[in-house]
């Protein structure tokens, strides 16, 4: 089933209303949809590099708005909707333990999930469920998703097709390493 969903999502990149499809996928990916918007962004930017930053902006705005839906699911309907979504992702058992520590690291959790391939919907739902202040959630989601989508757009705009393979295969690793180095830098600054 996931393979069919992936192929369907890829076919949307060639559609005349691809920006609308990207907005829909970006919105839904932040709360319930399993396929990340990158699978639409990459072929769309490669096809029309002059629109790279418009495409990234559409993904950013829709993703943050979808994150608000995920936040709302967590805050208002966790038992009915949020818990089953997290169960389907294999994250249901860790919910209670996660909630006790989440708000201590909430900014970093949202930032990390927004940049890396970690399912953003998990963090958006957990942010609402754990009562993270909405202003912190929204501002961090904007920063994280902007870094992710504009990094992809800039790399594809600058380097074009040769970077596609690198992005599809190793972006998760690179952004995870970047995130670890960023946190490490803050820890070093704090304790030195």
UniProtKB/TrEMBL annotation:
Keywords in alphabetical order: Membrane, Transmembrane, Transmembrane helix
Protein name, entry field: Membrane protein YqaA, SNARE-associated domain
PANTHER family xref list: ALKALINE PHOSPHATASE LIKE PROTEIN (PTHR42709), DEDA FAMILY PROTEIN (PTHR42709:SF11)
Gene Ontology cellular component annotations, sorted alphabetically: plasma membrane
A Pfam family per the record: VTT_dom
UniProt domain VTT: residue ranges: 52-155
Record InterPro entries: DedA_domain, VTT_dom
Domain of life: Bacteria
Positions in coiled-coil regions: none
Species this protein is from: Shimia gijangensis
Residue ranges crossing the lipid bilayer per the database entry: 53-78, 105-129, 135-159, 171-191
